[in-house]
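hey
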């Protein structure tokens, strides 16, 4: 078999695979195997970083499923105790909180400022900026469990409840998808409740300029008014540098706005510095409307962004901040 004129003629001297290799080398204009290997090395050098940044977000997903696996094992081990205790999941929550807190410390040098503004008991509504992946919020929940001994209830998007296997994790950590009546009920029962008004839209289509994308949403403000609780704004520095999305692609934005399909790839997982800041509580005022309270909350969150985030965000700078010390007064 011989390679000539772009084809392989049958001959016993060479295998068909060798012939195809020769054709490939000719097409790439590579003279020998060494040139071929150098070409492969070049491709690996170019594409490996790109592959890595798209793989790292899946590590977080794997970590979530490992957490779910732990819950299943924990439940089986303690199923007899369940008949005698209403707080059987406390140990599981604290164990997972410890694991997530360890991940936060090692991978992002995580720090939190203003946690004392979260009440030791009683309700409060926490409103936060939504990163491409809300891993900073997971870290916050872990800190509240470990340092406050409280479980922060959360409002999650409907698609979370459709992810296979996620139900135990959502139930143990008190994640609800609304509606407003359920949110008010949770607050009136004395729980902490956290919500990101921007939700999936803000997660996928905001960028390193940290634009707050709430639109005309005021439901969270009405919840605070109905439950007569204060609102605590929360923002995590460099959350957009840890994970980013390809939300700038117009076709992906069109698919989401038209069909609510969140098919926007997320990449990153960079070990940048994370600092979570909680602002001063916005107290309940019966004379404030939902529109006014929503605007006041947005201004408070924007103030945290303006104070603690350099715009536009920069991944390399955020990595360097791992080695910078910042006074606790901030």
């Amino acid at each position: 078999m011989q390679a000539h004129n772009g084809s392989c003629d049958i001959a016993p001297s060479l295998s068909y695979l060798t012939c195809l290799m020769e054709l490939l080398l000719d097409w790439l204009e590579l003279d020998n195997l060494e040139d071929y290997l150098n070409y492969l090395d070049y491709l690996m050098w170019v594409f490996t970083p790109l592959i890595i940044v798209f793989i790292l977000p899946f590590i977080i997903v794997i970590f979530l499923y490992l957490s779910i696996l732990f819950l299943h094992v924990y439940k089986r081990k303690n199923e007899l105790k369940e008949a005698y205790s209403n707080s059987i999941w406390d140990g599981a929550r604290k164990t997972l909180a410890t694991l997530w807190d360890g991940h936060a410390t090692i991978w992002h040098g995580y720090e939190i400022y203003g946690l004392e503004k979260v009440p030791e008991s009683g309700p409060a509504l926490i409103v936060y900026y939504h990163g491409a992946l809300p891993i900073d919020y997971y870290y916050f929940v872990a800190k509240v469990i470990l340092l406050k001994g409280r479980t922060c209830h959360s409002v999650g998007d409907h698609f979370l409840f459709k992810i296979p296997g996620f139900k135990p994790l959502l139930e143990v950590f008190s994640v609800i998808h609304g509606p407003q009546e359920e949110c008010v009920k949770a607050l009136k029962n004395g729980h902490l409740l956290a919500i990101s008004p921007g939700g999936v839209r803000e997660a996928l289509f905001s960028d390193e300029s940290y634009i707050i994308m709430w639109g005309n949403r005021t439901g969270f403000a009405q919840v605070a008014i109905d439950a007569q609780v204060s609102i605590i704004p929360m923002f995590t520095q460099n959350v957009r540098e840890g994970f980013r999305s390809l939300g700038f692609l117009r076709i992906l934005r069109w698919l989401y706005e038209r069909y609510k399909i969140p098919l926007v790839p997320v990449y990153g997982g960079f070990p940048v510095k994370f600092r979570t800041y909680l602002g001063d509580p916005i107290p309940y005022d019966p004379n404030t409307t939902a529109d006014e309270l929503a605007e006041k909350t947005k201004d408070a969150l924007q103030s945290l962004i303006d104070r603690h985030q350099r715009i536009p965000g920069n991944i390399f700078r955020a990595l360097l901040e791992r080695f910078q010390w910042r006074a606790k007064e901030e």
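Confidence is low (pLDDT under 50) at residues 10-14. The two ends are 75 Å apart (CA to CA).
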